Amino acid sequence: MKNKFLLIIFTFISGTFLYAQSLNEAILTAAIRISNDLPANSTAAVVSFTSDSTNLNDYVINELHGAILRNRRITLVKPDQSQLQNISAVDASTARNIGQSLRVQYLITGSLQQSGDDYDIQFISINVSNTETRSHYIASLNPQNDDNFANLLGITPAPVTETARRQQEQQEERARLKQEREEQIARQQQEREEINARWSQLDRKERNALKTANVRNNWISAEGSLGVFNYSIAEVFNPTVVLSYERMFGSKLSLGLNLNAGLYRYKAGSVFGDSLGFSISAPFRFYPWGKSFFVGISIGWVFGGGEYGDVEYHGVKHSDVYIDWAYLIIAPGFGWKIDIGKPGGFFFRTGIELPLFDWYFYTLTGKHEFMFFRRREFAGGTGASLGLKVTAFLGIGWAF
Predict the structure, then answer these.
(1) What value, to the nearest 5°, has the Cα angle with vertex 118 and ends 56 and 18?
(2) 19-35 burial, b if ≥16 CB within 10 A, otherwise e?
(3) For the chain, which has fewer Cβ within 10 Å, the N-terminal or C-terminal residue?
(4) CA angle at residue 364 from 360 to 368, to 5 degrees?
(5) What is the pLDDT of residues 282-325, one digit of tens each?
């Protein structure tokens, strides 16, 4: 029981007290924490920040307001200067009146306290209706590591070395990039919540209008395909499994990557047999209406090999021949990416590819003697093949 209590206390402290590298980083992190802790689409206002510096107070209020506003998860009301001047302190006795005058559900306040050489900055979000704390963030700052913070406090920091300056710039850049990523995630989350909230109220036509080809940017699927090729040099029956990734660029264009593994059953004259083959290809797709239907072209490299029965080559019959083969293939096609249920999430994909051209390479060797050792190569070749080639595919995946 004692260990469990200590774990709870440690979790609470580590979740609320953090060491920030700069004032700006503390403000950005606090904005993310507050935006995530308050209910989506709730109303709030940054009403006060108390410290010994008026410049710092004004700076923090404006920067925190802007950082929360960019997250777009909650609705912010910005008090005018006269309203801010009338707010001296926010506590249980004044929170309800201030909230009613600003017409918001939550009040956001902050303060700065010196602790030795460091300063503890904290932000609190208060529920106006019951005066309970909904969000709490604390961080430790050192003005010797942050020129901007020191200037706002009105103190002169110790000289900063060139190495320390570069480290500070790198830390601020990492904080800025982190903020941008968090803002993007928050915007996407808000868009999904808005779509989900509207979904039950839409009719079928309106629901289909939301299902654009790029309702999500990333589409991963597992697919099965079956190819029947009538080459100029061979007939091939080709069932494969495919792992596919597609990245949307806008509503009409995408670029992907396919990894295939399958069976290749060849028959070329007296040569017949089964081979295990693999391929990697890059499909480029175009969605003319920005919906489910697409046309595209795929460029890939296929390779494999297998043992065959009697093979006659230049009038000489060879038994137990192993054939290595590989070819470059270009295949246009068309299909449908069908979103299931709400936009994003599960989807089906199906379509047809029609390989137009391939350039092949092959070698013939003797049968395996041991594991990876074969007898010497005695034949080989390269060339192009034409013919009727059709591949159909069907798969299911997840969009995110």
Answers:
(1) 90
(2) ebbbbbbbbbbbbbbbb
(3) N
(4) 130
(5) 999 999 999 899 999 999 998 887 776 666 666 666 666 777 77
